[in-house]
Amino acid sequence: MKVIAIGPWSLYQVLIQADPEFAELFAVRADFASEMTWNEEHIADYAAFISRQVRDRKLIHFSAAAVASVVEFGARQLEHQKKLTTRFLDITNLVIEASHWAGKAGHDPVMAEDVERALEARTYRSNLTQTRYEELILDRTVGIATDGEVVGQVNGLSVIDLGDYAFGRPSRITATVAPGRGSVQSVERAIELSGPIHSKGVLTLSGDLSGKYGESGPLSLNATVTFEQMYGPIDGDSASSTELYALLSALSGLPLKQAIAVTGSVDQFGRVQAVGGVTKKIEGYFDICQQRGLSGEQGVLVPAANVKNLMVRSDVAAAVTQGSFNLWSVETIDEGIELLTGVPAGERDADGRFPDGSVHARVLERLGRFAEFSNRQRQD
């Protein structure tokens, strides 16, 4: 007799550590990937799988366009332009529901629009929490600006995961600055609502500030950043670039475009790094902008490393193509701050000085005034 145990990696680790005989009884271990490469061979596998489900469950046959829609769904599940999910239970459920809607519409074979109808129905059954949150934004209970310019304020993006449904949520992030001892304080960290990864992100952006502006001495700065109207735990470093943009705006006095939402983590050298859930974040912000009316100025700033993860809905893609919504990718904080302010970030010349009027020159000037104030305070 052969015994095969199937389960998550975490359970395997518990068993192999708790029972010395487990490794002897189950000597062969095999990992099953939850993804596979999106290529012609695996597209054919998807088509064969759909055909088998149709035959076994006596469903309506699928057209080539409908199969293509299911394949695209498989990529959207992973948010990757070159990968397909191997969670075939999700594919089976979609095939069954698409066949149902095709039958209601009198279609034979199943059309791509039937697959889209099934996906829309699935979303409608699960998005009550998202709808309620959007209502709070649209009636101004939760303050999220999608136009105008504000100093020290920017729209960040996060993902709310409800288990079987996830959606992107915009958040207003603000920063204030004053003379001090070189600290960047996160309100969430101070009241213990910040997880360890978020705290790491705040410390990392502090390192970027020190490395860029602290050549002549310690920064005489007391800065505070916070997520406004957020009352639950916050974790992850995907907002660290957003918090840094808010700080640079507060220090330079340059307003940030509120039509642009931002996601991305940052390293100590000002490089913008990839984050998770970028497609959901884009769609969440798009939904708010669309309900308020697309202006052509709105859009989302994402890390260049996340471009391969963009698998947005067809309505978002159409809006981008038409120019009524925008997607920008950046590799550095300098690129992002130029887009958000419309002012050149500035590069150091041979003497180590930034061009007059640039973002970095304005920040250094403000930090210089803070240093002078702190010196006078110590002398008094």
Summarize the structure.
The chain has helices at 9-18, 22-25, 40-57, 64-78, 88-105, 112-126, 128-138, 187-190, 196-213, 240-252, 278-292, 314-322, 333-341, 359-379; strands at 35-37, 83-85, 149-150, 153-161, 166-178, 183-186, 222-228, 256-257, 260-262, 265-266, 272-273, 299-303, 326-330. The protein is of the alpha/beta class. The mean pLDDT is 93.
What would you note in describing this structure?
Strand 4 and strand 5 form a beta hairpin. The protein has helices at 9-18, 22-25, 40-57, 64-78, 88-105, 112-126, 128-138, 187-190, 196-213, 240-252, 278-292, 314-322, 333-341, 359-379, and strands spanning 35-37, 83-85, 149-150, 153-161, 166-178, 183-186, 222-228, 256-257, 260-262, 265-266, 272-273, 299-303, 326-330. Helix content is 47%, strand content 16%. The protein has a seven-stranded mixed beta sheet with strand order 6-7-5-4-9-12-13. Strands 1-2 form a two-stranded antiparallel ribbon. It has 380 residues and is of the alpha/beta class.
